[in-house]
UniProtKB/TrEMBL annotation:
Function: Molecular chaperone; assists the folding of proteins upon ATP hydrolysis. Known to play a role, in vitro, in the folding of actin and tubulin.
Keyword terms, alphabetized: ATP-binding, Chaperone, Cytoplasm, Nucleotide-binding
Species annotation: Platanthera guangdongensis
Keyword NAD found: no
PROSITE patterns: TCP1_1, TCP1_2, TCP1_3
Family: Belongs to the TCP-1 chaperonin family.
Highest taxon in the source lineage: Eukaryota
Subcellular localization(s) per the UniProt record: Cytoplasm
Main localisation: cytoplasm
Pfam families: Cpn60_TCP1
CDD domains reported in the protein's UniProt record: TCP1_epsilon
Designated name of the protein: T-complex protein 1 subunit epsilon
Amino acid sequence: MALAFDEYGRPFIIIREQDKKSRLRGLDAQKANITAGKAVSRILRTSLGPKGMDKMLQSPDGDVTITNDGATILEQMDVDNQIAKLMVELSRSQDYEIGDGTTGVVVLAGALLEQAEKLLERGIHPVRIAEGYEMASRIAVEHLDHIAQKFEYSVSNIEPLVQTCMTTLSSKIVSRCKHTIAEIAVKAVLAVADLERKDVNLDLIKVEGKVGGKLEDTELIYGILVDKDMSHPQMPKRIEDAKIAILTCPFEPPKAKTKHKVDIDTVEKFQTLRHQEQKYFNDMVQKCKDVGATLVICQWGFDDEANHLLMHHNLPAVRWVGGVELELIAIATGGRIVPRFQELTPEKLGKAGIVREKSFGTTKDRMLYIEQCANSRAVTIFIRGGNKMMIEETKRSLHDALCVARNLIRNNFIVYGGGSAEISCSIAVESGADGYPGVEQYAIRSFAEALDSIPMALAENSGLQPIETLSAVKSQHIKEKTPFCGIDCNDVGTNNMQEQFVFETLIGKRQQILLATQVVKMILKIDDVISPSDY
Ligand code: ADP
């Protein structure tokens, strides 16, 4: 009962409306929480690795997502349980910080919880387990630093970077042309990277997709792609050395803003008004030409008559361009956004080597490529694919690859994938356990066992015998003292991950271990769950 007594012996209630709340305490609370966490992790386990399965999720409004990305699966699952939400949060933090390894981190957390359950059953106090896990994670992270290898790349030799990005893509739908996509990701990141400060601003990389074509047609554009076309079909489709006026003001004669009445009762009056309007617009066009603009990009629309006049005066224009795109165009071309027409001056024009319009397939879809921009740091990746789901999944996979490339530029240390880093850490943690005389020793050993669950899941998903495969690789590690051996998921014939070029970033792996430990410790320390009951 949550009834307590004050110093005078008077009873008082700590939790109001107790009958309406359900409550779990002590071991029951921990076990229920562990079960919830494990359930989430079990969902993702089958998605891990190059032979992992995809999940199909349908949103309430009927949109279908097919994905292999841990963070996306959990995000769209709409979980209700509080502990399950913690696991979703775990995957999300890995995504924010690192961008890759979102499935692995949840699988590891699930394995740690499973081991903790066994320890609880043996009567070990949860706090001791949490402490043991903390010690073990420290040993594992230190060991990672020990086995990590420096990774050399240069702008002229990007192949090592491409290989690492390929590892993350190998488990996705796009694995069919992972080399093309990985190369695009690396080139895009290098184009916007500041190699001296080791910094990459991923906001400068715009990812666009259009249904149609093949995945192989995906391309990197050193500039901006706008999903718009020239306002008139007879305007030129290619402009070289373009000087671009970027307008957020209306490009037409001003309309009266408040109510005015214009009496037009004769043809002459109508003609005069028409001429006035035409002259006004002609003056605007002339002003654009006088400042030297050869292309006008406008946030607003203009009517057909204005459009015709623009064509007639040989001034190409694009209308209804979104605010975000306008900003990117301004950044890339070194131009300024002009909010009032009177303020248009030559120095506010953006400069681009080529602006061209390209049409796709048999449809009337056209897009505008703005390339060789004065400030060429903004790039666009243009994804093609058979259907919308494919394009969305490619965008997510590309995001992972971009993050891996960025992480490598920030810190160019790698560890080997295919579970080899986990096996190596597991051996180190296991042997480190003997150094601790307390009960924590058991927790440290369990941590080592939990690390083994990653290679086991990889083996299981690839149709191999998990226990046999793992024990063979583990003994190989101990015998040969090499940290490269992992699970040969693709049946290449060697389990040497160095030869297979399966790399992962050191910071990504380190973050996985640290985040998973942190969440599991948090879950273990909860011994009272108070929630509104169902009735
Ligand atoms: P995450 O979302 O955690 O990145 P993935 O489904 O991408 O999950 O799987 C990543 C795991 O698959 C990593 O442990 C990685 O080492 C492993 N992996 C990727 N490619 C290969 C490969 N060719 N052979 C063996 N293991 C691989």
